[in-house]
Write a structure and sequence with these properties.
The chain is mainly α and 166 residues long. The protein has six helices and no strands. It is elongated. The two termini are 28 Å apart.
């Protein structure tokens, strides 16, 4: 017997949004939305590594152009690469945890993506920053895709399912 899955309407009362869905079995298959969300989070980590590599390549010229002392420029580069490396590792860890079904990691990623989208919107509306393919268009689009995938009903239900042995 197949269970009919109700599609989400364009407007739902708050009680339907905060209420619990029917619990999934511990052996339920990982939904496509969760898989895509985890893959896109890992993709953001890869893009972070590429950005850090590109930044390291142009840093010498940029620091010289701005008149930064070479010794201080080296320290600044180490700080940026260190912080960026930690960020990449956190993204990899969160992507792996989402893949494994962590609801906490899913919610943390959604909060971070919401902040990222908000910062881009504030930059555009308040400060006149351009949104182009070379600046923020791809990252904002990817953020929105991941946010949609991880906030889906299937991803939420799978992350909240009871685990084996608990």
């Amino acid at each position: 017997m197949t269970e009919h899955v109700r599609k989400r309407s364009s407007f739902e009362p708050a009680t339907a949004l905060v209420g619990r869905d029917a619990p999934l079995a511990a052996s339920a298959k990982r939904p496509l939305a969760t898989t895509l969300g985890a893959v896109f989070v890992m993709g953001r980590a890869v893009v972070g590594v590429l950005w850090l590599a590109a930044f390291a390549l142009v840093w010498g010229d940029l620091a010289a152009e701005e008149g930064i002392d070479p010794e201080i420029a080296g320290i600044l580069l180490a700080w940026v690469l260190g912080a960026g490396g930690i960020s990449v590792l956190v993204l990899v860890l969160l992507g792996w945890l989402i893949w494994r079904g962590s609801n906490t990691a899913r919610v943390l990623v959604m909060l971070g993506l919401t902040m990222s989208i908000t910062v881009a919107a504030i930059g555009y509306f308040a400060e006149g920053e351009e949104i182009t393919i070379h600046t923020t268009l791809l990252t904002v689009a990817l953020d929105i895709l991941v946010l949609l995938a991880l906030s889906s009903r299937d991803a939420r239900a799978w992350a909240r399912r009871p685990r084996r042995g608990s």
